[in-house]
Design brief:
The protein starts with a strand and ends in a 29-residue tail after the last helix. By secondary structure, the chain is of the alpha+beta class.
Length: 401
Amino acid sequence: MSNVIKFSFKQIIPLTRYSYVHTKYTCLLNIKGYSSKAATTNSNVFDNFTDWETLSKTKKISKAMRAYLERAKEHDEFMKKQQFEFSIGKRHLANMMGEDPETFTQKDVDRAIEYLFPSGIYDPAARPLMKPPEEVFPARKAAEFDEAGRPHHFLFYTGKPNFFKLLYDAAENIQLLYKFEDKVIRKKETANPNQNLDLSNTVWFTKDQLELHLVEKLTDLEYENFKLVMERLISLPYSYQFKDFIEKFRKTLTSQKFALEIPKPNFDEEGRAYVTTYECLRKKARGDVTIRSPGTGKITINGKDITYFEDTQSREQVIFPLIFTGMQNKVDVECNIEGGGPSGQSGAIRWGIAWGLRSFVDKNMLEAMQVAGLLTRDHRRRERKKPGQPGARKKPTWKRR
């Protein structure tokens, strides 16, 4: 009778000093020639198999994972508390405004905050706001390592795995485009001009936007490297193949909406094209601006020339849109303005000129005007005086006695 035992184990466990059983394999253990004592020892190993399997299933959690789980638990509790307080505050705000709390949207919240807490502060970050906690508090990274402490990402030890993975993917896409271009050249084919990548209406993420997207802090040099490698990618003739990858890191210019609203010029008795912009507002000033083309650069303000404004700053405000677009000697400007002071009137005329020049400039100049802020209306007003103090911000002088 052959002393052969057939068995199958799920784990790797030691049988004797020199023999092991491998996972998922059925092995034959020949104990022929062993002493009865050795056979008894091996039988005890089989009897204790359940204990070995139980021990193998208990995974030890590393200190890094334990610390991450504790921080994640604290963060979840904090966000839950903030979400609860935000929902209560939103209901109170809806009741104050006399609206239904169930249908009170975030747009209604912003409008109510602006109504209840008027502010003339220009910087939006300094104005009072009430946003959901997900927008106020930055997002947290997910665990980058397993329970044993081994990192998931192969670029974990770079310190910024998401950023370097982005550069790695971009470089890999560049190499793939090089290979594809070589293949096309060998076949003596040409690129299809209809498949070119059109990015004229978008720009790259800013440094802050890219940090929010990657959930990592970047230096100025790293951001410049990001733009450099992405510009290299889009400069290749077949970059349209990775359009989805490129558009993930670009944002659309808001000037596109103005292209749909640009009025067509009318023509006067002399055959000159003209466009009139009404409701040119700035502080308490209100007026209208008419631009005629072709012209000689003549500017008329309430029947007077540019000397209507005595200070140099107001004059520079009026002619800045004309200089920026290169139209200072190509159009004539007629303005009617009332109310406010020199600063408000010059600001209203500046916006009216820029708004009317849209009908006489090309698409690229329109985008440049939008980026420069010429097409954005300035809603700032003089901040009102507060009760109990001499001015809007000024406080009484503190005296000890």
